Amino acid sequence: MTVQDNLEQIKKQITEACLRTDRNPQDIHIVAVTKYVSIERAKEAVEAGVIHIGENRDEGLLAKYEILGNDVQWHFIGTLQSRKVKNIIDKVDYIHSLDRLSLAKEIHIRAHQKVKCFVQVNVSEEDSKHGLHTEEAVSFIRSLEPYTNIEVVGLMTMAPFTEDRELIRNCFRSLKQLQQDVQALNLAYAPCTELSMGMSNDYEIAVEEGATFIRLGTTLVGKEF
Ligand SMILES: *Cc1c(COP(=O)(O)O)cnc(C)c1O
Fold first, then answer.
1. Which of 94, 182, 198, 214 has its Cβ near the most Cβ atoms within 10 Å?
2. What residues have CB less than 8 Å from 119, skipping those under 6 apart?
3. Which ranges does the record mark as transmembrane (predicted)?
4. Mean pLDDT (whole number) for 134-162
């Protein structure tokens, strides 16, 4: 399948999920996750109209950035080691995996301008996943105030690995609830208007539950390695 074909199919599903829940499809941004595919395939995605690219390793992001440059917006979506921040900080538009103060400090120090960050929350509390526990998130966000190069644009989560669609839905709902708690704080540096949630297997549920950024790898660009 071409990326174009996949993208059309996905947009149709998004539109239907929006119709079911009275949302505007324009509020949902598709991040093409290209970590499993070549630069050529990433290029095909851009030619098909994708404007957001996500990578989870600094090497992968830098290799693709070299070719695609600033024609697209760059999203760092994986665990980010503090020592890698300096490699990517001038290239990325969004970091989806802010989950500790030491990382916030490093981003703050290395950045030359404000960086849009999602605070990653491990709503499902699976040990294998990174991110803050739900009940730690508000105090964590409060403690980001001194790091003035960080803007908390939203929250990010990964749903549990399960076939149980209701468990997945509950996870996304909890993130939405937490977003409302953060917004109620009225922090200038944490408008928290966005929700990064939903991947290939669960993006329709995520859209129904309020996602504004969905991160699609396999279903959009496929998996070559
Ligand atoms: C790999 C990855 C994705 C995309 O996964 P697919 O299931 O292939 O869509 C989304 N988010 C994160 C954080 C990832 O690491």
1. 198
2. 98, 99, 132, 137, 140, 141, 152, 154, 155, 156
3. none
4. 97
